[in-house]
């Protein structure tokens, strides 16, 4: 299942617009805050689909029938840009378990095939748990697929949610076709194209550099 949250208006659309805006991008604090808020909002949407249970909660005045989350998810984020959305997810799922994957694009020339390498994985068991895999930019889909493969060394999740702020159609299709049936892909917006360097067009540029500074 693919959910494009830009298909109808919500405040998330404002945050996406600010992420794209070249003038607002000059404020890295604002950029990180917007990615964090997008993470929290998509986390809220995901929560509607998770298992829950009924419980009576005692108040000072009586008993309130309540619906509560069944099991906390494992939030897994691809370093470094994914840290921003990860923090937003934790604002929604404040008792979630956490996983981190270091994945980066190897240097390449214009038009060359993009190669992604995973160097590091820190994760609890994900066996029979809800896995939420976050990466702000879903371009070719290679980083998400390699991160998922690396996480499988920690178990087999019962359900998978892939979360991004902006995706390219090609990347969404690649992830949809590779990950198990039932995987839900959540996108703040989906753009049509990739350029020769596999950056999303119109996209927003390099999310990691905009959030944390240019790397060597």
Protein model, in words:
The structure is a single chain. By secondary structure, this protein is α/β, with parallel strands linked by helices. It has a single domain (2-212), classed as Rossmann fold, CATH 3.40.50.2020. The chain contains six helices and twelve strands. The strands form three sheets. Strands 1, 4, 5, 6, 7, 8, 9 and 10 form an eight-stranded mixed sheet that branches. Strand 2 and strand 3 form a beta hairpin. It is globular. 38% of the residues are buried.
List keywords for this structure.
globular; 216 residues; Rossmann fold; 12 strands; alpha/beta; single chain; 6 helices; two-stranded antiparallel sheet; eight-stranded mixed β-sheet
Helices and strands in order, then pairings?
Elements: E1 2-4, H1 11-20, H2 28-47, E2 52-59, E3 62-69, E4 74-79, H3 82-92, E5 97-105, E6 116-122, E7 130-134, E8 137-138, H4 142-151, E9 159-168, H5 169-178, E10 184-191, E11 193-194, E12 200-201, H6 207-212
Helix pairs in contact: 1-2, 2-3
